[in-house]
Amino acid sequence: MSDSERSPLLSATGKAKAPVQPSEESFESTPLLSGSDTTPRYDGEQDDVDNADAASIASRASNVPSIKPTKTKSIRWPSVIAVIILSLFSLAVIVIAFVVPAAVEEYAKAAAVLEPTNLSLESITANGVRARIQANFRLDGQRVKNDHVRRVGRATTWLVRNLGTEETKVNVYLPEHDNILLGTAGLPPLTVSIVDGHNTAVDFVADLIPGDAEAVRTLANEWLEGRLDVVRLLGKTDIQVKAGFIPLGTHSISETLTFEAKKLPQVPEYNITRLNIGEEPLPGHDKDAIAVEVSVQAFNNFPVSIDVPEIGFDVLIPGCDFNDPFILVAAAVTSPVAVRPQADVVVNAHGIVEEIPKPLTQICPNSDSSPLDMFFKKYLGGEKATVFVRGQKEAPSGTPEWLAEILSSITVPVPFPGRSFDNLIRNFSLTDVEFTLPDPYAEPGDPDADLKVSGNILVLAALPSDMNVTLNVTQVRADADVFYQSEKLGELNLPDWQKANSTQLAAGKDQEALIKIQSFIKDTPLNVTDGSVLADVMQALLFGGEEVVLGIKTLVEVRVQTILGRLELKGVPAEGKIPVKPMSKDLLGFVVPKVGGIEIIDTTLESITLKAIVNITNPTPYSAYIPYINIHLLSNGTTVGEAIAEELHVTPGNNTNLVVSAVWNPSMGGKHGRKQGRDLLSQYISGFNTTITLRTHRDSIPWQPQIGEGLSQLNLTISAPRLSLPGGDGDDDDGDDDQKQTHFIRDAIFHIFSSTATFTLVSPLHRNTIYIDYVNATALYNHTEPVGRIEYSLPFAAPPGLSQTPKLPVEWSLDSVGYERMKQALGGQLKLDARATVSVRLGQWTESIWYIGKGIGATVKL
Asked: Is 361 exposed, middle or buried (0-12, 13-18, 19+ CB in 10 A)?
């Protein structure tokens, strides 16, 4: 290699020459990296520079302009202007490319106003829905808060004026559900004014095509079930934009919209204006089915218009559990529906129930009710019973397949307004009623420990006007609450199925459709829960003289035979009235019995237990079986004994030879009882008009203390029953119309010569002998004039029936008018009165009583 090739490109011209001092004009010609003789090469060699190369470098260096031009040289303006324009253009590019689009985009988002004026779904096509959309579009700069953005946006849109789009396809996805395609909208070319404040009326037809049916189903079900808090939609499209005829390119737009569930359109309120249930032949079958026709009316508050074709759907009822599948009960089809904005929408549907599905009537686990029972319990109770509606996959002709597919995957709950059957019972009556009192030997809780009712039930109920189905009630049972004047009296329970039959009465000109149900109940428990209410009822029946109306509220279980087979309906609520006829005016014959056949069962020092044969007349239409009842006997408010009846069967009309027991025990009334009992007994055997008060008590009816306590408020005071005496009824008329007495002394014989008297006594006892231990008596003529006095202390017997006393000594009142009158009646008879104090003994019981007898026939002998 030569020395010149190894020389630096920028170096001095010669090696041996002294360095040249640069002049002022040639300063810039000096290399930035100038060399020297002492400067080493990068390879370390010190070769001379080739002369030819040095001459060339020197020649180029001599042509480089100096760094400082001369004063006479001019400014090159074209270059300056070009640099300025280039800088401004670069700045404009930066602003237009980055600043303006961002500002315009922000301005457009904030200022855009779209006001829908009408949405009409013109037709349902084979692929989707063709919708006509009408709206007003404008940009309102006042909605933009940022002043800079507002100014840039207004200026830009004023320059552009109009903006147009080509035909566009928009896909809508659900981001929260794996971006499932919800649907596609095909939009035609559009041109709108984007000048601030200018309004553009938009009117175009778009084809809306549903996407994945699963997406629609998921979204719809979440909304219907109330689990949809927000809806997030993602719209994606590639839009071709142009300003006038200038194309602005294709832009990919992706926008997310979020809607709160509460702001989504809700299912409008609706009214069921017509509901008809009838029977009609089943096409293609030799049998009838139940047909249901429903008309539903709702108001369309949205600017939506559409003509909906016939749609088939299934009607389902919930199963036993929330998670159980729904039970298909009917198939229905709607008639074509015209939906218009701000107008009522009427939907008519016709459904057919061909048969009763078995799962509908099967008893649910751990329950005594079926799905049908639970549905009817709400429906007939006046509550909203929910049914579910689901589209049919096999849609009627005219329904697009895509619509059928979507509807078949959506189940919509429909609250079905309940029908209260309150006040539908026109009449509820009991005939041939028989009451059975509790068995005294039954254990608490035993059915025999309840008051029971037997009789014929006749129910006359109104059928709903919209029900025209043949029904035959075959069996009934019920639990009923019985009320009197809105206060609960008790509970009437029919735990076992009772046979029944029914007759439907067709509606007439002035008569509604009725169903008459008849059934006989036997020994149905009646639990009286409020004795005071029972007392009010008895008071009204005994003394009110008017019909007593009892209210009844019940949950009825019925077995009904229909054209589809037998249905068992549980918990059917019903209300009715039970009219109870008042007691007859001949009630006195019932409460004043005729007593005979008295027999003493037992005696103590203070009491007598006796048994008697009683004849009564029952003026009521009710029968009663009385296993046991105990009633207190009172005189002037003091208890003097009790009456007991066992195994009595009382029927309407005459009842004879009823055996009743009684206990005479004045000591039950305390310290005043014995005196009150002595006076009552003395008055009774003297023939006075005595009364006895009958009063129940807590233990009157076994196991039913509330009945006894309740009826104890009702004191029934009656005349003491008259005894049937042998040898006649003992009635004598002494000439006074108001004086009819029962005489225990039938007649007397006075012997003047021996000063003695004998009496014929009548004992009401049939098997027991009464002993008279002491007699202190005075015979009177004309009620006041003494005839004579008898005092006798030797005991003598008064056996059953008629008997004669021994000759009792008489101490005559010789100076009295009465004695003279007796002598005048020698060989004949006269009427005498008697006043006596007598000590009587019956078994262990003894009592001293007084006796006043009037009109005793006395025979006078010598």
From this structure: middle
Residue 345 bridge partners (DSSP): 298
User: What tokens appear for 798 in the block?
Assistant: 């008064």
SS3 607: coil
Q: Which two tokens stand for residue 244?
A: 């006038």
**Span 174-210, pLDDT tens digits:** 787 778 887 887 878 878 787 888 888 878 777 778 7
Token reading at 101: 């689009």
144 token code pair: 């933009």
Whether the pLDDT of residue 835 is over 80: the answer is yes
CA distances from 93 to 2, 89, 149 (A): 56, 6, 18
Name the token pair of 807. 């000759």
Query: From CA 205, how far away is CA 195, in angstroms rounded?
Result: 25
CATH number of 270-416: 2.60.40
* DSSP 8-state symbol, 214: H
- Which pLDDT band, with edges at 50, 70 and 90, does 81 fall under? low
Residue 159: closest CA among 194, 204, 210: 194
pLDDT at position 45 is 43
Residue burial 280-294, b: 16+ Cβ < 10 Å; e: rest: eebeeeeebbbbbbb
Is 542 strand, coil or helix? helix
Measured distance CA(773)–CA(444) in Å, rounded: 49
Instruction: Take residue 349 and report the two structure tokens written for it.
Output: 């549907």
- Give the architecture-level CATH label for domain 731-861: Sandwich (2.60)
Q: Work out whether strand 811-812 and strand 785-792 pair parallel, antiparallel, or are unpaired.
A: antiparallel
Alpha carbon 590 to chain centroid distance?
Answer: 46
Q: Rounded to whole angstroms, what are the CA distances from 372 to 142, 377, 465, 570, 733?
A: 62, 8, 22, 9, 77
For 56, residues 6+ apart whose C-beta sits below 8 A from its C-beta are none
User: In which region does residue 261 sit, left (phi positive, over 0), alpha (psi from -120 to 50) or beta (all else)?
Assistant: alpha
- For the whole model, what pTM was predicted? 0.56
d(CA 384, CA 270): 13
Predicted confidence (pLDDT) at residue 389 exceeds the cutoff of 50 = yes
pLDDT beyond 70 at 73: no
- Could you tell me which residues come within 8 angstroms of residue 588 by beta carbon, excluding any fewer than 6 positions away? none
Cβ atoms within 10 Å, residue 765: 19
Three-state SS for 223? Answer: helix
**Gap between the Cα atoms of 274 and 335, Å rounded:** 15
Joined together, the tokens standing for residue 417 give 């307004």
Residues in the chain: 862
Question: How large is the average pLDDT for residues 412-441?
Answer: 74
pLDDT digits (tens, 9 = 90+) for 226-247: 666 777 778 787 877 676 666 6
**Is 634 a residue whose pLDDT tops 90?**
yes
DSSP letters, 459-528, are EEEEPPTTB----EEEEEEEEEEEEETTEEEEEEEEEEEEEEEEEEE---SS---EEEEEEEEEEEEEEE
Number of CB atoms found within 10 A of residue 197's CB = 12
Residue 7 has pLDDT above 50, yes or no: no
- Which residue intervals of 268-389 are DSSP H helices? 358-361, 371-380
Q: Kindly tell me the burial class for residue 397, based on how many C-beta atoms sit within 10 Å of its own C-beta (0-12, 13-18, 19 or more).
A: exposed
Phi and psi angles of residue 140, each rounded to the nearest 5 degrees, phi first: -115, 100
In angstroms, the Cα distances linking 737 to 733, 734, 740, 741, 783 are 8, 8, 8, 11, 17
Q: Is the dihedral of CA 801, 807, 809, 813 positive or negative?
A: positive
The one-letter amino acid at 54: A
Contacts of residue 73, Cβ cutoff 8 Å, sequence gap at least 6: none
Lowest mean pLDDT among 397-401, 471-475, 663-667, 829-833: 397-401
Alpha helices in 161-273 (DSSP H): 213-224
Band (pLDDT 50/70/90 cuts) for residue 551 is: confident
What distance in Å separates the CA atoms of residue 485 and residue 577, rounded to the nearest whole number?
Answer: 11
Q: What is the pLDDT of residue 359?
A: 87
Per the rule left: phi > 0, alpha: psi between -120 and 50, beta: everything else, 585 is alpha
